[in-house]
């Protein structure tokens, strides 16, 4: 196959953080152990690779309106714009291509807005890693891809955050994840009957609040809170959040969807005590409107501050809740739970 004709495409699913989010962030996970329950959905990040015709390195992110052209031999530091693209390319050029130039056209886009709380940035890195591994024919396993994506984002780019997003994007499906010291991660896939996933799907609205958020400040506040004493309000709230993941796992496996939704709302109440900035007046107004229209619980997916909100609602009240949310500047996203994690393929 001619390298000039080879094209590679990869995609990775985004995820809903159902319970335990934040307990995967150090130093809390190192000291106390983290537990997270998440599920991937039918929104994806995408990456397309092909050889460049001019020997340069081209990055395109049309959903952000950004394109960058770099010298393939000296692509430069991990800086904006498209810092994550640069960092992934540098890793593969140095560690898997003997430092030799990799002149490529790299195009990425996402089905969800950046900063929306569904793991978009981490899924993008996973997609890029998988695409480059496919391009260079490097046999990376699931844990290898997730770990490499985590290192690129958290170490190479020094971006604050946890560990769940990379592993969710790689493995796909419903997963109960455990996090320990020294970056230990164990992914436990949940074998749910499809009818249970369908039932949960039918009881959730996915509402984009209309405001993306930069999670770094919220996560930094959470990190600072974890350094408080073990009896502090924030640490005790994190303990409740971690426990909610185990409780929700048991409820899901037993098909108790109503109980899952109760835990969802309870964990949101605990999360607001774990760090500052997790909720705000805009989120509180949306929540009040949804609950007044018949929603029975809700939770922001991700660090908080904005992005996507999961709203629990009876099927008969679904339309009323959607109507009540219309004046608040956001929109509902249709979604389905998906089992497949990151995928890549080569085209001629």
Automatic annotation (TrEMBL):
Record Pfam families: GHMP_kinases_C, GHMP_kinases_N
Chain ranges of the GHMP kinase N-terminal domain: 88-173
SUPFAM superfamilies membership: GHMP Kinase, C-terminal domain, Ribosomal protein S5 domain 2-like
The entry's keywords: ATP-binding, Kinase, Nucleotide-binding, Transferase
Domain GHMP kinase C-terminal: 248-325
Superkingdom of the source species: Bacteria
Keyword tRNA processing (UniProt): no
Record family assignment: Belongs to the GHMP kinase family.
Name the record gives this protein: Dehydrogenase
Lineage: Bacteria, Pseudomonadati, Pseudomonadota, Betaproteobacteria, Burkholderiales
